[in-house]
Amino acid sequence: MGASVQSIISNGSDGTIVDIECHLSNNLPNIIIVGFANKAVDEARERIRGAFATSLIMLPRKRVIINLAPADIPKADSGFDLAIAVAILLANGQLSGLPRGKQAFIGELGLDGTTRAVRGIIGKLLTGRANGIRTFYIPATNLPQAQLVPKVTLVPVKNLQQLYGHLTHLLPIKPVKTGSGRYRLPATKAPTVNVHLSEVVGQEQAKRALEIAAAGGHNVFFGGPPGTGKSMLAKALASILPPLNGEEILEVTHLHSLAGRDYEHIVTERPFRSPHHSASHAAVLGGGNKLRPGEISLAHRGVLFFDELPEFSRETLEALRQPLEDRVISIARVKETAEYPANFMLVATANPCPCGYYGTDKGCRCLPSAMLRYRGKLSGPILDRIDLYTSVHKIEHDKLLVQALDLKAEEKVRQRVIRARKQQAKRFRHSGKLNADMTNGDIRQLSRINPEAGVLLNRAAVKRGLSARGYMRTIKVARTIADLEASLIITVAHISEALGYCSTQNFFSKP
Q1: Which of 177, 210, 226 is the last residue of a domain?
Q2: Is the dihedral of CA 448, 453, 454, 458 positive or negative?
Q3: Residue 451: per-residue pLDDT
Q4: For an engineered disulfide with 139, which of 37, 115, 161, 192 has Cβ 3.0 to 4.6 Å away?
Q5: Residue-wise DSSP of 280-311
Q6: In this structure, is residue 405 part of a structural domain?
Q7: 95 and 12 fall within a common domain
Q8: pLDDT digits (tens, 9 = 90+) for 476-504
Q9: Is residue 475 domain-resident?
Q10: Do 250 and 122 meet the contact criterion of CB atoms below 8 Å apart?
Q11: Per the domain annotation, does 491 fall within a domain?
Q12: Phi/psi-derived region of residue 97, left when phi > 0, alpha when psi is between -120 and 50, beta in every other case
C-alpha cells in the first residue's frame, strides 16, 4: 500500500514543496527514508517510533519506505516528522483519508509525541500559499508567527495523538483562519530605544543628517575624532524611525526565525544590528555550513551599524556592494544557492586616522603609511554608495550638562519622518520603496526639480567631479529634504542642503 502527503522545506528566504511518499511491504519491520536526506531527517525514524509508542498509536510491523520527492534537492529540515507520521497512517489504513482540499503538514515530533516548533514557518506558509495550499497543520508553538501570514487556515497541533483524533473526526481541532493577518502593531506605539536623539548635545548638522536618513532610508556616515558622539548619534536613530507596518513585521520576523531559535517571537520594532569588526565574513553576509541569514539580512527594514568602518576587513566591505545597490544578498555555494532580502540603512562611523586625532589639537601619532592603509580599506565604489556624509565635532565641556532631555522636540522630528514616509508611500503607490530606492527612471519621472535647482546641481556636479551615481544620489537626498518640508518641488534650497552632505574630502583626503 502507498500514500502521499505534502510538506515544505526552507530554501533561502522561500521554500520548496516536498511530497512525502510512503510504501509498506511485508518484509522485515524497518523504516527507511530516501530522497537526499541528511542526518536530521534520517533520525526521524527513531522520533516516529517513540512518538507512536507514547501516543498509543499502532506503528505497522512492516517495511516502511519513505521517499522525499523531488529526490535531487537536499533535505536538511526536521519539519518532516508530522508529514511522515500522517503518510504512514494513511498507507496502513489507519486513516481513511484527508479532508478535502490541498494541505501541508509541518512539524517536528518529540519522543513523547509532542510537536516542536520549526524554523522559518512564515516562508514555508508563503511558499505553500503560492502553490495553492490553503490549510496547514503546524505545531501549536509556531502559531503566533504563523498568524502573520494572511489568507491561510492553520490547524495548531499539540501532539500526535491530538492530530490522530482530528483526522479520524473523533476530537476535531478548531482551525484558525488568519484573514488579512492576525497581528497589527498600533501606529501610535513609540519605539523602545536606549538612546534618544534629544540626549545628543549640539551636533545639529549630524542630527539633521539622521532626520533625512530616517525619512528617506539613506545611508549615512559620521566622521570625527574619538569621544565626540558618533556612536551615540547612530544609536539615537532608532528613536525617530517610524514603526514597522504589517507586511514589514512579516518579513522581519521570518528572517529572524530563520537565523535564531526563538520560533515564537514576533519582531515588532525595526532591527538595529551592530556587528563587531572582528565578525566573520559569513556572520555579516550570511552563509555557513547551513545557509543562514547574516547581519545584513537581520537588519532588513532597519539599521546596520558599522562602528569604525575601516576596521572591518576589506573583503567584507566590498561584499556590501550588491546589497547596498540591489537590496538583496545572493549566497552561492557548491551544493545550494540562497537569496535573502537586505534592505537596510547603513550607518557607519570612522576616525580620521588609526589613533583618531589627525587634525585635532592633541596631535596625530600615526605614520603616513599607517594612515594610507587605514583609509585604503574604503574603496571608491563603497564610499559612492553612502548618501550622507557629515563631521562630528568636539563639544565644549560646560555644555554637556546644560541641555535637558526634550522628548517633545524629538517626537516632532519623528512625526516629520513619518509624514515624509507617507508621502513616499503615496508617490510609489505603496510598493514599500523609499527615496533611497529610486531608480534612474523614477528620478526622471518623479523627482520634479525646478529649473534653477537643476542649473545649480549641474554646476556643482562639474565642479566637484560627481560620478553619475553621486549625481543621482544627490537628487534622492534633495527629494527627501523636500518631503520633510512637504514640498512637491525640489528647490535650490533643497539641492544646496543635499550638496552639503555629499563631500568625503574632509575624512579621506591624503595625509
Answers
A1: 177
A2: negative
A3: 93
A4: 115
A5: -HHHHHEETTTTEE-HHHHTTTSEEEESSGGG
A6: yes
A7: yes
A8: 999 999 999 999 999 999 999 999 998 65
A9: no
A10: yes
A11: no
A12: left
> Which is it for strands 292-293 and 303-306: parallel, antiparallel or unpaired?
unpaired
How far is the C-alpha of 179 from the C-alpha of 134, rounded, in Å?
A: 11
State which of 386, 421, 456 marks the end of a domain.
Answer: 421
Same domain for 274 and 207: yes
pLDDT mean across residues, the chain: 89
Which CATH number goes with the domain that contains 153?
A: 3.30.230.10
Query: What are the counts of helices (DSSP H) followed by strands (DSSP E) for the chain?
Result: 21, 19
Query: In 3-state terms, the chain is what percent helix, strand and coil (to 5)?
Result: 40, 20, 40
Residue of higher predicted confidence among 362 and 455: 455
**Residue 404's pLDDT band (boundaries 50, 70, 90)?**
low
**Listed residue (498, 503, 457) closest to 478, CA to CA:** 498
The amino acid present at 291, given as its one-letter code, is: L
Give the count of domains, the chain.
Answer: 2
Could you tell me if 92 and 150 lie in one domain? yes
Instruction: Assess if residue 498 is contained within a domain.
Output: no
At residue 260, the 3 state secondary structure works out as coil
C-alpha cell at 500: 552639503
Residues 102 and 212 in one domain: no
Q: Domain range for residue 304?
A: 197-421
Contacts 24+ apart (CB under 8 A), 124-130: 124/8, 124/9, 124/10, 124/15, 124/79, 125/8, 125/149, 125/152, 126/14, 126/15, 127/8, 127/14, 127/15, 127/16, 127/17, 128/6, 128/8, 128/15, 128/17, 128/104, 128/152
Query: Picking from 129-133, 184-188, 261-265, which range would have the lowest pLDDT averaged per residue?
Result: 184-188
What's the pTM value of the predicted model, to 2 decimals?
Answer: 0.88
